[in-house]
Design goal:
Largest sheet: 6 strands, mixed
CATH class of the largest domain: Alpha Beta
CATH architecture of the largest domain: 2-Layer Sandwich
Strand order of the largest sheet: 11-10-14-15-17-16
CATH topology of the largest domain: Heat Shock Protein 90
Radius of gyration: 29 Å
Number of strands: 19
Oligomer: single chain
Helix content: 25-40%
Shape: elongated
Number of helices: 16
Strand content: 15-25%
């Protein structure tokens, strides 16, 4: 640091990454606060008003500061720098948060270091992976009542194991259950894979898929809330993608023409797997979302950005058990190479590598149409646009629901689910849409009332 830089800092004053101290009193609080945040610099020998007072810099002072650091748990990383009689303590952002000193846990808020509350400490433990959602036991889950043996059977078949021996031993060996006091307790990973109704316990594990008519993503043609176990959700999301993906034909001179699809299915599937594998499940208010727009597919995932995360370099697994389970059935690998496989698929299918965007809370993967498809599209080798197919699909669903309401005005949502194949959220969404557009009206209370069809579709 030069004297000119120091003058500028003194002029600007304290801030999120700058702290002034006359001496070492309370230095431990400032060090852990910076380590728990984004790092920063502590200028020793400067008053709170930003006036240089100076301090005697010697080996004793440096040893005292190192002792202060050694007493923090874990030890933050610091570098000392001198300019005239000002000692600068450079504190790096910690890679093993949260950090504590003898007075507790502190974090940087604006120009101040404040003691963290119990909930704030817990949130750091969660976001840094010290407490993992998939490892937590869910006491409300009852084995075998809530357990789906058929899902375990399908899982074992996908893993290449045809014989199922002792079910309890298998579940324990998979890391999804543990015996306690004569009972078998499931963790959240076990529920997300093997519960009869995973969303009964973890309702925010739903995956929302939506097809839009416009590029702005405003006019919805079709929408579904996909439920089930995580490996079932992946397959259902891909069914939705395949249903509405356009196809072009390449004529090769042979009897069988070659289909060229708008998007690389295997790459999208990998991104969908990553989105449910690395989701931050502690946050209850966000579903995974796939938006199918006219010229792109965008996958949105809620996460918590890990400390010092560098895309393409940092090997990151938020939910270890979930990742292990997916790896056993060959849905992704353990070593965080998902985007390498996406790159290989895109290269093989002559499709652009997806755009990757992320911030502290959201991770976006956006797939563009393949180069080969766009080339053939210009040659008009696309047999049909999915728009009409989509609209016919939606029209049939609407007609079916209206017919059910006419035939049985007291029909329940559960009965509509059974007769249409829609999810609970899908039924709710369609009924709300029909009400908002004036086709139906609810007469009387939710329980004991009935539906009235007041307008017919044109």
């Amino acid at each position: 640091m030069t004297k000119e830089e120091l003058k500028l800092i003194l002029k600007e004053g304290e801030g999120y990454k700058v702290e002034f101290k006359e001496n070492t009193a309370g230095l431990d609080k400032e060090i852990v606060a910076f380590a728990n945040a984004s790092g920063g610099r502590i200028f020793i020998g400067i008053t709170d008003e930003g006036k240089p007072k100076g301090i005697s810099i010697n080996n004793r002072l440096k040893s005292q500061i190192q002792d202060i650091v050694n007493n923090c748990k874990p030890e933050p990383f610091i570098l000392l720098e001198e300019i005239d009689n000002i000692l600068i303590v450079n504190v790096r952002e910690g890679t093993d948060k949260p950090y504590a000193c003898s007075s507790g846990f502190f974090k940087r808020i604006g120009p101040n270091s404040q003691k963290m509350t119990r909930n704030e400490i817990i949130e750091i433990f969660k976001s840094e992976g010290k407490i993992r959602f998939d490892e937590l036991i869910e006491p409300k889950f009852s084995y075998p009542k809530d357990f789906d043996k058929n899902k375990l059977k399908i899982f074992m078949q996908l893993a290449g194991i045809s014989e199922i021996g002792n079910t309890k031993k298998i579940l324990i060996s998979l890391g999804v259950a543990e015996p306690q006091e004569g009972k078998l307790y499931f963790n959240n990973a076990g529920i997300l894979f093997f519960a009869k109704e995973p969303q009964k316990f973890i309702p925010w594990s739903v995956f929302t898929v939506a097809l839009f008519k416009d590029t702005a993503g405003v006019d919805i043609i079709d929408r579904k809330e996909i439920e089930g176990s995580l490996f079932e959700i992946v397959e259902e999301v891909m069914k939705f993608v395949r249903l509405y993906t356009k196809v072009a034909y390449r004529f090769t001179g042979r009897p069988q023409r070659e289909n060229i699809y708008e998007y690389p299915f295997d790459a999208i599937r990998e991104a969908v797997i990553n989105s449910v594998m690395h989701k931050y499940y502690f946050e209850h208010g966000h579903n995974n979302i796939l938006r199918f727009l006219p010229d792109q597919i965008r996958i949105e995932n809620y996460w918590q950005k890990p400390s010092n995360f560098i895309f393409g370099k940092t090997v990151f697994r938020r939910n270890h058990i979930i990742a292990d389970l997916f790896a056993k059935i060959h849905f992704g690998e353990k070593m965080g190479t998902g985007f390498d496989r996406i790159r290989e698929v895109c290269k093989k299918e002559n499709a652009p590598f997806p755009d990757i965007e992320f911030n502290e809370n959201y991770f976006y993967v956006t797939f563009k149409q393949s180069y080969e498809y766009l080339k053939l599209a210009k040659e008009k080798t696309i047999p049909k646009t999915p728009k009409k197919t989509v609209e016919k699909t939606v029209e049939k669903t609407v007609e079916k629901i209206l017919t059910l309401l006419r035939d049985n005005p007291k029909i329940t949502q559960k009965e509509i689910m059974h007769k249409t194949g829609l999810t609970r959220r899908g039924v709710e969404w369609n009924l709300k849409k029909l009400k908002d557009e004036g086709y139906i009206k609810r007469m009387g209370p939710d329980k004991g009332g009935y539906w009235m069809v007041i307008k017919e579709p044109k």
